[in-house]
Amino acid sequence: MSLSLGIVERLNRARGDLRMGVPVVLTEEGAGAVAVAVEALEPGRLADLRLLGEPVLAITARRAETLKARVYDDDLARIELPDAAGIEWLRAVADPADDLRLPMKGPLRALRGGGAGLARAALALAKSAHLLPAAVLVPVADPLRLAAQHALTVLPLEEARAELSRGSPLHPVVSARVPMVASQAGRVHVFRPEDGGEEHYAIEIGRPDRGLPVLARLHSACFTGDVLGSLKCDCGPQLRSALARMGEEGAGVLLYLNQEGRGIGLANKMRAYSLQDQGFDTVEANHRLGFEDDERDFRIGAGILRQMGFAAVRLLTNNPAKIRMMEANGIRVTERVPLHVGRNEFNAAYLATKAAKSGHLA
Ligand SMILES: Nc1nc2c(ncn2[C@@H]2O[C@H](COP(=O)(O)OP(=O)(O)OP(=O)(O)O)[C@@H](O)[C@H]2O)c(=O)[nH]1
Ligand SMILES: [Zn+2]
């Protein structure tokens, strides 16, 4: 009936549950588990989970590599929870903040065999909730009964997986004129996804001809760089320089995508910054936290451009992955316009790492 929740609504609710430390129930082909994000887990809940069965800790292969744990499930490892393990142990495995001070957490015993699908889904959900990618799972015999008993959100993975990989459709909500330093002919458009995720913005300068390649920039949110003027990256100067160029040409479109920290969220980006203070570079820091180098979904930018009627762009970027993803998602890149601004003594190593490891162009 129409009052029951669809998969998009359940996923959205599940993200909120995980952020509150509330367990969600994952099911697939008759199997089921209760899953909770380590970052938000409270001691009382952990004790309750232990009463249900044998808990397992899921971490990504990236995190497992740092911890020297065996990886039997490709992109993740399922670690047995020692009987004495409490919240501190779980947090220490999930969070690399104290890796150097307290390197010994093991021996970590990784499970082998049996399906890893439920654990994989729990990690994907934790990432999409911008939490550390680590989850405790307890397999249960009658997941639906348990969920009904405790009013827990149920995610049938057959449906959830398709939804997570599809990427939620974005819809224009509103647009209004905003005169800016770069151009008085500015207009801000707000786009909202169906799944309750982040909104994204398009800043249109002038009235770009939809029949011609538009000067475009895909800018990922950087609170520290864009707002605070942080010297650790080049985001602020890139943002202002891109808008200024569009203003000079009289036309352009800048997409402000709310993918803070290359898609890991501000809390995790600050964790990455702490690791950088310990000597790790931007890519190593992401890996130690359990993330890939770049967790952004670049389909979003292409989708917004298509909706706005653009088919081709002159793209302001140094990142070849952005060009590939635009082309793969139906937007022709007729020209790459380099955007080298804002280099300083604090971000020189960061920019060098991007050139060496992420293939950023000169
Ligand atoms: N995880 C993480 N994210 C960072 C770090 N420094 C900056 N960021 C984020 O990286 C993103 C910067 O993205 P972009 O400006 O699109 O940079 P880019 O992918 O190098 O591409 P171009 O600037 O177009 O060449 C923003 O979301 C920042 O918040 C860092 O050390 N770690
Ligand atoms: Zn930045």
UniProtKB/TrEMBL annotation:
InterPro entries: GTP_cyclohydro_II, RibA, RibA-like_sf. Its EC number is 3.5.4.25. GTP binds at R217, L218, H219, S220, A221, Q238, E260, G261, R262, T282, T317, K322. Its cofactor is Zn(2+). GO terms for cellular component: cytosol. Signal peptide: none annotated. The keyword Lyase applies. Binds 1 zinc ion per subunit. This is GTP cyclohydrolase-2.
